[in-house]
Amino acid sequence: MLTEVKNHTINENKTNSKKLYIQSYGCQMNFSDSEVVASILKKEGYDTTPNPNEASLILINTCSIREKAEQTVRKRISDFKKNKLENDDLIIGILGCMAERLKEKFLEQEKIVDLVIGPDAYRDLPKLIKQTKDGRKAVNVILSKEETYGDINPIRLNSNGVNAFASIMRGCDNMCSFCVVPFTRGRERSRDPKSILSEINNLNKSGFKEVTLLGQNVDSYLWFGGGAKKDFMKKKTDCEVVGFSDLLEKVAKQNPKMRIRFSTSNPQDMKDDVLKVISKYENLCNYIHLPVQSGSSKILELMNRGHTREWYLNRINAINKFIPECGISSDFITGFCNENEQDHKETLSLMEVVKYNFSYMFYYSERPNTLAQRKYDDNVPLNVKKRRLQEIIDLQQKHSLWRNQKKIEKKYQVLTEGISKKSDKKFYGRTSDNTVVVFNKKLTSIGDFVNIKIKDCTSATLIGEII
Ligand code: SAH
Ligand code: F3S
Predict the structure, then answer these.
(1) Looking at residues 362-383, what average pLDDT do you find?
(2) What is the whole-number distance in angstroms between the Cα of residue 74 and the centre of ligand 1?
(3) Is the separation of the CB atoms in 193 and 223 below 8 Å?
(4) Whole-number pLDDT of residue 239
(5) If we measure between CA atoms, which residue out of 297, 298, 278 comes closest to residue 288?
(6) Which band of pLDDT confidence, cut at 50, 70 and 90, is reported for residue 8?
(7) Residues in the ligand 1 pocket, defined by CB under 6 Å
(8) pLDDT value at 12 more than 70
């Protein structure tokens, strides 16, 4: 009898409550997409929950960039086997890059998955969910040349109410030979600047203090009325053509009290006009993430990066000229096909020239169907890839420490973003050049701009005092 009553309650919960648990892996774009998905499903009556055990819909937004990223996702999926056993009505869906890469195959490989949906198909989610409720598996992995989700106001997930992302474009046309993104996210297209400005205006009104404009290659942003960038020349348009520097200027002018960041810049496309606009507006942060991947021109060519070592260093000089206090970070890949010790030394020497504030560093992971996988031999042994990786990590740490030490006794404006992980008596925040600062709380609140004098540092963090 008791169990019957219990069952009844559970059934009632199931029919009345639509609870969504959504988890994101990978790049900031995925996290931003999950906020679009949450908004689409809110209209269908779904509220988000931080607890997968009370969810009626579990969505995992996946990453394919390296093999390890895919393994992490698969492990997470297997965690939900018990939820599926306990609740027949639970729907499990896979979003993002793995969905796009593996398509229907995913359903065969992971039996508990009910739906697979690619990054351009999220508007179709309500329909696919209905389909799974009829007992059928559902797949939509169609890529689009137009979709930017421009009209959708994202629901901010796990937000501190201070920092937010706004996606300004989708896809990538660059075809770096190691990279799976052009295959999983399709052709490059830009979002209507009006909808970007309106989203940021809403953030401003809701009290957000910082927004990061997102794209795989922001310097390539081009609004000409919509559609794939490669069709720009073909399309006749009477609308105002807006490039990235124009967009930055519009955003900066409209929101003088907000900090504006962006990611990611591409060395091949980064022009001086963007640097000039950054130097002109106080609220455009003095920070550029400019991934180089390798310091060897030979490897850059094999990677199809579209620039040489010299071109890259010329861009670094331009940054230092227009924005003298600019923080610069990079991404590196060690052990790409045919990389020899000399190439690796060139990466180390490039790092010595630039002395990055920080970097994201990886060893090469071959991805199916990329140009490198089809044409080149993944011929650097794993132990060599890892040893070279450790060498660049060690050097980067030295440079980060050097950069931070130069800040001691100087004053910076810091945006307070949250409570320090190590002590609840301290806040953390960031300088305009994107360095993390920890300081005593005093009378400040999260979201406040404070002036801080730097007293000490580690390679990762500055330690300061409010002045
Ligand atoms: N332009 C993108 C790059 C996305 S991928 C952006 O918005 O950041 C992020 C980084 O992952 C790349 O810069 C590269 O350093 C790394 N990466 C991409 N493919 C990789 C692979 N096959 N193996 C190892 N690292 C890779
Ligand atoms: Fe990938 Fe190169 Fe684009 S790293 S996301 S193909 S700029």
Answers:
(1) 98
(2) 20
(3) yes
(4) 85
(5) 278
(6) very low
(7) 27, 65-66, 178-179, 181, 216-217, 264, 291, 293, 331, 333, 362, 364-365, 367
(8) no
Ligand nearest to the CA of 168: 1
Per DSSP bridges, beta strands 242-243 and 222-223 are antiparallel
**For residue range 340-371, what is the model confidence (pLDDT) as tens digits?**
999 999 999 999 999 999 999 999 999 999 99
Query: Mean pLDDT throughout 153-162?
Result: 95
pLDDT, mean of residues 162-191 = 97
Q: Distance between CA 274 and CA 353 in Å, rounded?
A: 23
- Helix ranges restricted to H, 17-133: 28-42, 67-79, 81-86, 96-102, 105-109, 125-133
Q: How is residue 230 written in tokens?
A: 């490669």
Cite the beta strand spans of 265-323 per DSSP E: 287-289
Torsion sign, CA atoms 148, 238, 275, 433: negative
Amino acid identity of 452?
A: I
Atom of ligand 2 nearest to the CA of 173: 3
Is there an atom of ligand 2 within 6 Å of 176 CB? Answer: yes
Quote the ligand 1 centre to 291 CA distance (angstroms): 9
Nearest ligand 2 atom to alpha carbon 175: 6
Predicted pLDDT of residue 13: 43
Q: Categorize the per-residue pLDDT at 333 as very low, low, confident or very high, splitting at 50, 70 and 90.
A: very high
Token look-up 């300081």 returns: 439
> pLDDT tens digits for 231-251?
887 777 788 899 999 999 999
DSSP 293: B
Yes or no: say if 277 and 252 are a contact pair by the CB < 8 Å rule: yes
Atom number in ligand 1 closest to CA 266: 1
